[in-house]
Amino acid sequence: MYKIVVSSIIIVSVFIFTTSFFQKYDLPKSIARGKQVYANNCMNCHMDDGNGTPDIFPPLDKADYLKKM
Ligand code: HEC
Fold it and tell me: What is the pLDDT of residue 61?
């Protein structure tokens, strides 16, 4: 029983280490994907520069709401 527990912990750790090691975080690609999501889902209302439309759609750029996070 003890051997099974120890060897499964080792196998899981090695798996997590190797997958995270080979998965590089690519910021420019992530930004490009985010732009696509914004363009498809948010831009109609919040506008392409994120400034919204006064009194209708709030600006996302410098929004108080987002700064709290
Ligand atoms: C149909 C138009 C519309 C679309 C599309 C839209 N929004 Fe909004 N959004 C609004 C309106 C209207 C408000 C204000 C709601 C309120 O104050 O109750 C708002 C508020 C927000 C707020 C809060 C801003 C603040 O300062 O309070 C955030 C953040 C936000 N939207 C993000 C997004 C994101 C991200 C997307 C795309 C995934 C998106 N919105 C798509 C209309 C839209």
Answer: 79
